[in-house]
Design brief:
The complex is a heterodimer of chains A (166) and B (203). Chain A is built from six helices and no strands. Chain A is mainly alpha-helical. In chain A, helix 1 crosses helix 2. Chain B has two domains: 2-95, RNA polymerase sigma factor, region 2, helix turn helix motif (Rna Polymerase Sigma Factor, Chain: A, Orthogonal Bundle); 103-199, Arc Repressor Mutant, subunit A (Orthogonal Bundle), CATH 1.10.10.10. Chain B has nine helices and no strands. Classes of the chains: A mainly alpha (166), B mainly alpha (203). Chains A and B meet through helix 1, helix 3 and helix 4 of A and helix 2, helix 3, helix 4, helix 6 and helix 7 of B.
């Protein structure tokens, strides 16, 4: 192998990105190539300069502020597009129609249905009430007639037909 | 309480993204809390002012929120977020006058030069140097590097991302990542020697 190739492998080996086979080949090369061996040691030493600094403290309440800001700007509320392979639901698969619009339409339809049902039931009740009133009136008239016949049978029999006695 | 915590652990970033798209504030808050620390760390590598760091990390999350529908689940949410964060930071730096990346400095367009870093041996940091001093020297050298080299070194050496994750974050091939890291290390060594010749062994 060429030394230039090995130098790239050295860099990869620092990051554990070499295969076992490549590590073996690199080791073989390093055994008999002093400049590359030096390069390997340099790379190792150089890495010691990259020291992760102290962890940065996240200000208290940062996440809450971000969420409040994100949801306050309704204009930028994301619209739903199915994720690739994300198992999107059927209603979200409608191209060009966002989930919010679909939900709004569904809610409006449900509200209309409820209102329609309520109206129908109200009318139905009124209609039943009217029928009840009519039945009640008929019953009352019949009842009155029967009462008349029971209470004043004599009168009705005494009363001669109009114009017979005169 | 324990059950809730278990559910919290089990929810993946992808699930939280879907829940956020369904309007869940709580899911988005979990996403922010899960990744805020690393984004603060990333921004801190580029910026010194802590209020700038906070503003840019907040900008990053808000941009991510407004573009959440564009997130493709074939890459991890974390690398997607990192990409937005890195671009937000670099845009900010460019607006503030940091020179843009020069095409001629792209490793794919430069031949050779791999051995240029062999002009002197750079030992590991002197044990007499405090960790804080090492961090400052490294930071100053990184600031002198072209963006493409600085980015891969920050992501690899300081953030510990794998080649695959760097490839997703920078939207380049793994071969390009390998090449850039290799060249970036040589450049870093070269700049370190230029800036601090006292660190060169045998100086």
């Amino acid at each position: 192998m060429r030394c230039d190739d090995i130098e790239r492998w050295i860099s990869k080996s620092m990051d554990n990105e070499l295969s076992v086979k490549e590590v073996g080949q690199m080791r073989q090369h390093l055994e008999h190539c002093a400049p590359c061996r030096q390069s390997f040691e340099d790379s190792r030493d150089l890495r010691a300069w990259f020291v992760p600094g102290a962890a940065v403290a996240v200000p208290a309440g940062f996440a809450q502020r971000v969420v409040a800001e994100a949801f306050a700007g309704k204009a930028s509320v994301p619209t739903f597009t199915p994720l690739k392979g994300g198992g999107a639901s059927a209603d979200s698969a409608m191209p060009g129609v966002d989930r919010f619009t679909v939900r709004l339409a569904a809610m409006a339809a449900a509200l209309l249905a409820v209102l329609g049902l309520a109206l129908y039931m109200q009318r139905s009740t009124q209609s039943r009430d009217l029928h009840a009133d009519r039945n009640s009136l008929e019953d009352t008239l019949k009842g009155l007639e029967q009462l008349n016949q029971r209470e004043f049978p004599a009168r009705s029999q005494e009363t001669p037909p109009e114009g017979t006695q005169r | 309480m324990g059950v809730v915590r278990m559910q919290e652990i089990e929810r993946t970033d992808e699930q939280l993204v879907l829940e956020t798209l369904d309007g869940s504030r709580e899911a988005f808050q979990v996403l922010v809390e899960r990744h805020q620390s690393r984004l603060f760390g990333l921004a801190r590598h580029y910026l010194r002012n802590s209020s700038e760091v906070e503003d840019l990390v907040q900008d990053t999350f808000l941009k991510a929120f407004s573009r959440l529908e564009t997130f493709q689940s074939q890459s991890s949410f974390f690398t997607w977020l990192y990409r937005i964060g890195k671009n937000t930071i670099l845009d900010h730096l460019k607006r503030k006058g940091r020179s843009p990346v020069l095409a001629m400095e792209d490793p794919e367009e430069v031949s050779g030069g791999a051995r240029e870093g062999r002009s002197g041996r750079v030992p590991s940091p002197d044990s007499k140097l405090l960790t804080r001093e090492v961090v400052e020297v490294t930071r100053a050298v990184l600031e002198e590097l072209p963006d493409i080299f600085r980015d891969v070194l920050i992501l690899r050496e300081l953030e510990g991302l794998s080649y695959q994750e760097i490839s997703e974050t920078l939207d380049v091939s793994i071969g390009t990542v390998e090449s850039r890291i290799f060249r970036a290390r040589a450049k870093f060594k070269e700049k370190l020697i230029q800036r601090h010749p006292e660190f060169v062994e045998g100086f």
